């Protein structure tokens, strides 16, 4: 897995403070940023947090490049609907020699890993065989319809992989660009940084949180699972390791 913070709103915390200033002070748009020192910015942000007034946080966004993650993760992350996604398409991009994600629990057991790798080889073999069969069929059809050889081959390949992809597993890796506003990110971290979250999306959320905290430490100082803020939200399903989790996120944010 590789996660890159591609871009974010410039001076994100100052923008949020300016939005808060507009809500609570008689300021003109042209002068909102005037006098917003670092100290005043932090005070505005702490005030918002104390009031539970989170709408100003929506004004800043973060865009991530994510690669080396599975299609299983893709199905989970797109449930976070207040976000924008651009995902590498299996319909247009041929998976001739695909990469796949191996769950750590499988990787730890030689017998399980052997079976897993066998199934991955079987899947790509079936994909390639199906693509070749379908491409040949479609090529002949397009030629009979009067297309030139080059155009017929191109269209036949696209049409073939569109159906051949159905045999590819959830383990198949993918790439995406994802943009979220800070309020959505706080919700995402609360849910997906929890130790009860699926391991792959938790690893992604942890790395995204680390990158966000470097840019906007005041906004994300209490970000993470509910127990980071003092109380586990999982009830009877708690992992029971609140102290360990709190220490993990203190270290992730380089806090003492």
SSE diagram, text form:
Blueprint: E1 2-8, H1 12-24, H2 38-51, E2 61-70, H3 71-77, E3 84-87, H4 104-107, H5 110-144, H6 149-164, E4 173-181, H7 182-192, H8 199-215, H9 242-252
How would you describe what is shown here?
The protein is an alpha+beta fold and 256 residues long. The protein folds into two domains: 2-87 and 173-226, 2-Layer Sandwich (Gyrase A, domain 2), CATH 3.30.1360; 104-167, no CATH class. The protein contains nine helices and four strands; from the N terminus they run βααβαβαααβααα. A four-stranded antiparallel β-sheet has the order 1-2-4-3. Helix 1 (12-24) packs across helix 2, helix 5 (110-144) packs antiparallel against helix 6 and helix 7 (182-192) packs antiparallel against helix 8. The longest helix is centred in the middle third of the chain and has 35 residues, at 110-144. The radius of gyration is 24 Å and the shape is flat.
Could you provide a short overview of the structure?
The chain has 256 residues and is of the alpha+beta class. The chain has nine helices and four strands.
């Amino acid at each position: 897995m590789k996660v890159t913070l591609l871009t974010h709103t410039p001076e994100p915390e100052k923008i949020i403070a300016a939005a808060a200033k507009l809500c609570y002070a008689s300021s003109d748009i042209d002068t909102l940023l005037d006098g917003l020192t670092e100290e005043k910015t932090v005070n505005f942000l702490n005030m918002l947090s104390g009031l539970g007034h989170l709408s100003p946080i929506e004004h800043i966004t973060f865009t991530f490049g994510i690669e080396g993650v599975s299609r299983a993760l893709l199905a989970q992350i797109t449930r976070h609907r207040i976000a924008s996604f651009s995902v590498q398409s299996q319909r247009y991009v041929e998976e001739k020699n695909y990469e796949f994600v191996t769950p750590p629990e499988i990787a730890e057991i030689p017998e399980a890993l052997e079976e897993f790798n066998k199934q991955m080889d079987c899947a790509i073999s079936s994909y390639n065989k199906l693509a070749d069969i379908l491409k040949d069929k479609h090529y002949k059809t397009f030629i009979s319809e009067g297309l030139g050889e080059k155009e017929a081959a191109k269209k036949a390949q696209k049409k073939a992989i569109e159906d051949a992809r159905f045999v590819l597993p959830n383990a198949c890796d993918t790439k995406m660009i994802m943009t979220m506003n800070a309020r959505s990110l706080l919700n995402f971290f609360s849910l997906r940084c929890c130790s009860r979250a699926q391991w792959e999306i938790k690893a992604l959320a942890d790395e995204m949180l680390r990158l966000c905290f470097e840019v906007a430490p005041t906004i994300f100082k209490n970000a993470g699972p509910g127990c980071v803020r003092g109380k586990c939200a999982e009830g009877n399903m708690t992992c029971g390791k609140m102290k360990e989790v709190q220490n993990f996120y203190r270290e992730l944010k380089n806090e003492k």
